[in-house]
Write a structure and sequence with these properties.
- The structure is a single chain.
- This protein has ten helices and 19 strands.
- By secondary structure, the protein is an alpha/beta fold.
- InterPro entries: Fe-S_cluster_assembly_SufBD, SUF_FeS_clus_asmbl_SufBD_core, SUF_FeS_clus_asmbl_SufBD_sf, SUF_FeS_clus_asmbl_SufD, SufBD_N.
- This is Fe-S cluster assembly protein SufD.
- Pfam families: SUFBD_core, SufBD_N.
Length: 435
């Protein structure tokens, strides 16, 4: 049975399995919208370079087994050396406090499933939940229809969360292909600050499809950083939609580091709702074999005197396929906008490919907006320079590629994360680099 038919057929059983039912009407309406829209195909402009048939023609379990046998050694390998961090661990969709380390103070943190059952948070959900996630997209509607797993974090006014928070989503001990719809809601009130790291991990040889939706609200003078570390195995699919709404004088960053996973689609929307906003989007993609990573970004400049920066680097080997589609929209009242967008790519083999399309839609006349993309191979002169100094061809290539990707992670404030990304870069490039 195709996935769409499974989704429709399993929905009533899913609703019956929930303890909370106050979203039933919204879920049913979302399922109807999904049924009308259907999964995107290559005929859709936004998916013309990304074929989802590999995902949508498989069957999945909608009810993952909760039991697991993850060892401490397996879990420790996922860490970044972050003994001074907090971490939240979801295994097979369930929050496991015994694997987590939560010392968050002066902030409201709940698993999404628990928050839905907590009457005192109903008002917050009514105000924020699904208010900026698009209702016109197949996967966001599908997520609303089936979301159950994930977390809710509200950081009150002027509270600074000193420790980064690493969210682990782990799937293990599943005998069937498994479908997760994770949902995250982050609210950072005026003057507050928080940093979140998100990673997904499949320990099984069965396929995992994760459909994730995240909504981020950053209030005046607040700062929210969200880092996506994507290094899953080759039986994992990830469709991610992240929506970030910023108020005046705020700063929000989303960094996306894509190294693993069979097919990864990242959709990122920034919505400006005030002046003097800064938005940063950075990405590093290094993939090979038959992997596909697709980055779709959009920044909506709706007010004057705001800035946005997009810097995405891609390195593709084997038969890997990359996609970058970055959009910047500048409203007619958004004068003094400064928007920068850059996508640079290196192809290491004849079978590798990249489709890149940076776009600007500008309706104001007093702006500084630029975009650009490059697709090429390594600089032969630089390669010769290194080889002339006794460095092997393989090491010289790796060093040049490391330097090429490195500037896309310069705004990472978390040193263990920066070191982890550097090590993953070195591993993917098969070179020894001292940190």
């Amino acid at each position: 049975m195709a996935l769409k038919e499974q989704i429709i057929e399993n929905h009533n059983e899913f609703l019956e399995s929930l303890r909370h039912r106050f979203l039933d009407d919204e879920r049913k309406a979302a399922l109807q919208r999904f049924e009308n829209i259907g999964f995107p195909t290559k005929k859709d402009e936004e998916y013309k370079y990304t074929n989802l048939k590999e995902i949508t023609e498989k069957s999945y379990s909608f009810f993952p087994k909760e039991s697991h046998n993850i060892t401490k050694e397996q879990f420790d390998q996922l860490h970044l050396g972050e003994e001074h961090f907090d971490w939240i661990v979801f295994v097979n969709g369930t929050l496991h406090k015994e694997l987590s380390k939560i010392s968050i103070e002066n902030a409201e943190f709940l698993s999404f499933n628990y928050a839905l059952n907590d009457e005192k948070h109903k008002e917050v959900f009514d105000q924020y939940f699904n208010s900026i996630a698009s209702k016109d997209l197949a996967f966001t509607n599908l997520n609303l229809a089936y979301c159950k797993y994930g977390f809710f974090l509200k950081v009150p006014k002027n509270v600074v969360i000193e420790k980064p928070i690493h969210i682990f989503y782990i799937s293990q001990n599943q005998e069937e292909n498994t479908f997760y719809n994770t949902r995250n809601l982050l609210i950072v009130e005026e003057g507050a600050k928080v940093e979140v790291i998100e990673s997904h991990h499949n320990f099984d040889s069965t396929y995992v499809l994760t459909n994730s939706v995240t909504e981020i609200f950053t209030y005046p003078n607040a700062k929210a950083d969200w880092h996506k570390l994507q290094n899953d195995n080759n039986t994992s699919y990830l469709i991610d939609h992240t929506f970030a709404k910023q108020e005046k004088d705020s700063l929000t960053t989303v960094n996306t580091f894509s190294f693993g996973g069979k097919l990864v689609r990242n959709n990122l929307d920034f919505i400006h709702n005030g002046q003097n906003i800064n938005s940063f989007m950075n990405g590093i993609t290094i993939i090979g074999k038959d992997q596909l990573v697709d980055h779709h970004t959009a920044v909506h400049h709706n007010y004057p005197n705001c800035e946005s920066y997009q810097n995405y680097k891609g390195i593709f080997d084997g038969n890997a396929h990359g996609v970058f589609n970055g959009k910047v929209f500048v409203d007619k009242i958004a004068q003094k906008t400064n928007a920068y967008q850059q996508n640079n790519n290196v192809l290491l083999s004849e079978g590798a490919s990249i489709d890149t399309k940076p776009q600007l839609e500008i309706f104001a006349d007093d702006v500084k907006c630029s975009h650009g993309c490059t697709v090429g191979q390594l600089n032969e002169d630089a390669l010769f320079y290194l080889r002339a100094r006794g460095i092997s061809k393989k090491e010289a290539q790796a060093l040049l590629l490391y330097a090429f990707a490195n500037d896309a992670m310069q705004n990472i404030d978390i040193e263990p994360l920066k070191e982890k990304i550097s090590k993953l870069l070195a591993e993917k490039l098969e070179v020894d680099i001292e940190f």
